[in-house]
Design goal:
Shape: globular
Number of strands: 10
Helix content: 25-40%
Largest sheet: 10 strands, mixed
CATH superfamily of the domain at 14-162 and 172-234: Alpha/Beta hydrolase fold, catalytic domain
Structural class: alpha/beta
CATH topology of the domain at 14-162 and 172-234: Rossmann fold
Number of helices: 11
Order of helices and strands: HEEEEEHEHEHEHHHHHEHEH
Strand content: 15-25%
Distance between the termini: 25 Å
CATH class of the domain at 14-162 and 172-234: Alpha Beta
Length: 318
């Protein structure tokens, strides 16, 4: 859940990769509805103003509510390939985070802690007492902060390609993160991040200022290890086997959640409620739209497991 490394749609160009390494009263503005071209069903959309930020949201599908949070320099749109599968089983509340997509940048600094508080208010304004949360990279950081700061709002938590401390990254990533800023705009104009931003942002010419804000965010050291231990809801960590995080950090994070300390036992009596999934053949840069992500997280969110008992006569408990 990096403060230091929000996720993003990426370009492989070396000149732009650096950028990828990447409660006051609330008022609910008018909402609208449209038909999703991917799913052929009506989608509700609108804005909720919280602490000076006018958050754009979309609600897809029906079922148990799932809050879906994108990575840095991205937007809801980065999840379009998997939204139909998620919305087939869930009511998905997708939000453009502060300064991203259709949510204006404004004058407030970008803060994961502040966004965690903001989303608690947004959920209340939309009428959700409790949701499951799924956040990718920077969105994972926001989902983590929401879960720590407002645990009563989150039933299950899935963190995708998001670490709990800055030293979780491979060391070569840190200098790249520290270089993010407005001077990179020209190099980024051919990338998906820039093109998607200018296609939907209220003020497309603010992209350089967004880069400066994101650079400031990514230069901040952080270590949330102690707060990981405070989480009481079931948590699933999902990484790619070729992620930007060290494999050792993935395991360390899982152990902080109570997993990976001993054998589960014949009857799974020693098994943690939390899960670690490392998906083969995936990197930080496409895991957010991989079909495997959906088939991995939905059983966990639904409290299901495909594991059979020793006799093969039934499914084991989750």
């Amino acid at each position: 859940m990096p403060t230091a490394r929000p996720g993003a749609l990426v370009s492989r160009a070396p000149t732009s990769r650096t950028a990828l390494v990447l409660l006051t009263a609330a008022t609910l503005s008018g909402s609208a509805a449209f038909v999703s071209p991917l799913m052929g069903q009506q989608v509700r959309s609108g804005r909720v103003a919280v602490n000076g930020v006018s958050y754009y949201y979309e609600i897809h599908g029906a079922g148990e509510p799932l809050l879906l949070l994108h990575g840095g320099l991205g937007s809801i749109d980065m999840f379009r390939p998997i939204l139909p599968a998620l919305a087939a089983e869930r009511e998905v509340i997708a939000v453009d985070l502060h300064g991203h997509g259709r949510t204006p940048l404004g004058e407030r600094e970008i803060s994961l802690v502040d966004m965690g508080d903001d989303l608690a208010v947004l959920l209340e304004e939309l009428g959700y007492q409790q949701v499951d949360g799924l956040g990718y990279s920077m969105g994972g950081g926001v989902a983590f902060r929401l879960s720590v700061q407002h645990p009563e709002r989150v039933r299950h938590l899935v963190l995708v390609s998001a670490g709990c401390s800055r030293d979780g990254f491979f060391p070569e990533m840190i200098p790249q993160q520290e270089q993010v800023g407005a001077e990179m705009v020209e190099a980024m104009k051919g990338t998906p991040m820039y093109q998607s931003y200018v296609s939907v942002a209220p003020k497309p010419d603010e992209f350089p200022r967004l880069l400066d804000n994101m650079g400031a965010l990514m230069r901040q050291p952080y270590d949330w290890s102690a707060e990981v231990k405070s989480l009481r809801m079931p948590v699933m960590l999902v990484f790619g086997d070729s992620d930007m995080y060290r494999p050792e950090h993935m395991v360390e994070f899982y152990k902080l959640l109570g997993g990976g300390h001993r054998d589960a036992g014949w009857q799974r009596e020693n098994m943690s409620q939390n899960r670690l999934a490392i998906l083969p053949g995936l990197t930080h840069y496409e895991i957010f739209m991989a079909p495997q992500l959906v088939t991995t997280v939905l059983p966990f969110l639904n409290g299901e497991t495909g594991a059979l008992t020793w006799t093969g006569q039934g499914n084991a408990a989750n």
